[in-house]
Design goal:
about 450 residues, alpha+beta, five-stranded mixed sheet, 11 helices, 17 strands
């Protein structure tokens, strides 16, 4: 946000009457005879001269001056006549308990049902009193609907008397041609018609509780003549006789609206005051300037990366599946070579484990592995003595518990020597078959434990 716009509804009572007739969500057609007074200021400049325009012209001007809502914010200043300020004493410091007790503490001070009011609290004073500002919910709802419909960025809604300049230990009283505004604290004040000023001012001074050290009187001479100013001074002097209060008079050549806008701009800038009525459920949402960062190329790059990475993962998955299929086929081939009698191979691992378990629990406690180890040891020993003994095939008969060994030796003498070695190793050996050809003697031996 680079600029601030200050707005006040001209003849606010007519505006309130118009807004009360609008149903929630119903489009508004603002009459041409409803005007606003407005001014603006850049954050590092002074406030411009106020202008009075029909609302439609005001909207057109804003949209022309600031095409985007993030470029400016609007502070709407409403009459304090529609707002009530008071103080309550709630011992609890917890916001939840304060919110629950607050409606019951102020309901007698409101002209309407407390549930129809929006309540804003301020900081406690030195005596523990909690200031409260009450405004009709319907008024805030209609104002927010009005500005939203015309795409106007409403930042704050401020009671006019609380926007007056104020210092600790003083009261600020502003007179202009039609109204009297009084600010007694950060959240305490009132706005009344000028006709009722003598009576109300006298009542306030007689019952002013925390008496100020200074009574600061501001005269807006733009709408006030000398006779009225002198009459006001006379009234004030009569009311403060005997009171230990210093009265300071100050004349301002501008109107009350300009006084308020100057004070807000100089003291707050872009900040929101604590007495802003747009709090709680009416809190305004911030606006962010659109970024000039070009995100589309990065988004496209990320999209390409995601597609390529997905393709990479898919390719890897396909290669892994292909390798798994190859290893599975090789495993089945090896299994069939080891166990040719098994015609149906479903789960190689489980079937292999079953065979190993069966071999380890062979006949009379002799296992395939034991017989194979003993026979292999004797083959190794025989071949170390420069004999030529070539094993060709090994099989195991589960039913007989026999290890069947097909081998080729040079002659029958060598075959008998090998059988003798097996017998010496406590193995029973039987020649199932033996033939001789040009390669030598081909024999099949049945080997089992002697105790079988």
């Amino acid at each position: 946000m680079t600029s601030k716009v200050f707005v006040r509804l001209v003849n606010e009572s007519q505006w309130v009457t118009f807004l009360k007739e609008i149903l929630p969500g119903e489009p508004m057609e603002v009459p041409v005879d409803l005007f606003v007074e407005w001014t603006s200021a850049d954050l590092d400049a002074s406030v411009s001269e106020p202008q009075v325009l029909p609302f439609a012209d005001f909207v057109t001007h804003l949209h022309s001056e600031w095409p985007h809502s993030y470029q400016y914010g609007i502070d709407l200043i409403i009459s304090g006549a529609n707002v009530i300020t008071t103080e309550v004493n709630i011992p609890s410091r917890q916001m939840r308990q304060i919110a629950q007790a607050l409606p019951y503490m102020i309901e007698d001070q409101l002209a309407h049902d407390v549930s129809e009011s929006h309540l804003v609290t301020g900081p406690r004073d030195a005596e523990g009193m909690l200031p409260v500002v009450a405004v009709p919910v319907s008024l805030l709802e209609c104002l927010r609907q009005l500005f939203e419909q015309f795409d106007l960025p409403l930042d704050s809604v401020l009671p006019d008397m609380l926007c007056l300049p104020h210092r600790e230990g003083e009261w600020t009283v502003l007179f202009e041609g039609r109204h009297l505004m009084i600010k007694r604290g950060s959240h305490a004040g009132l706005t009344i018609e000028m006709d009722a000023a003598p009576v109300v001012l006298g009542s306030i001074i007689e019952n002013w509780g925390n008496k100020p050290e200074i009574l600061r009187i501001l005269f807006c001479m733009q709408n006030l003549n000398e006779n009225v100013k002198n009459w006001i001074k006379t009234q004030i002097a009569a009311h403060v006789v005997g009171e230990e209060v210093e009265v300071q008079y100050e004349e301002v050549n501008s109107g009350d609206f300009m006084v308020i806008c100057d004070h807000l701009h100089q003291t707050l800038g872009a900040k929101k005051p604590a007495y802003d009525l747009l709090q709680g459920r009416f809190a305004s949402s911030g606006r962010r300037r659109p970024t000039s960062f070009k995100w589309q190329p990065i988004a496209a790059l990320v999209g390409v990366f995601v597609v390529m990475y997905t393709a990479f993962l898919y390719t890897q998955s396909w290669q892994v599946n292909k390798e798994v299929a190859r290893l599975d086929a090789e495993t089945k081939t090896l299994y069939k070579r080891l166990f040719p009698r098994d015609k149906r191979v479903v789960n190689v691992r489980r079937q292999m484990e079953q065979h190993i378990k069966t071999f380890q629990n062979g006949s009379n406690g002799d296992s395939f592995m034991t017989l194979l180890a003993l026979a292999g040891e004797q083959i190794h020993t025989t071949n170390r003595s420069k004999a030529t003994l070539k094993p060709k095939r090994v099989a195991y008969d589960e039913g007989q518990g026999d290890l069947r060994l097909d081998l080729v030796v040079e002659d029958f003498t060598q075959l008998e020597q090998f059988k003798t070695r097996l017998q010496q190793a406590s193995l029973a050996v039987e020649t199932a078959s033996a033939t001789q050809d040009k390669e030598g003697v081909k024999a099949r031996l049945k080997i089992r434990n002697e105790r079988s």
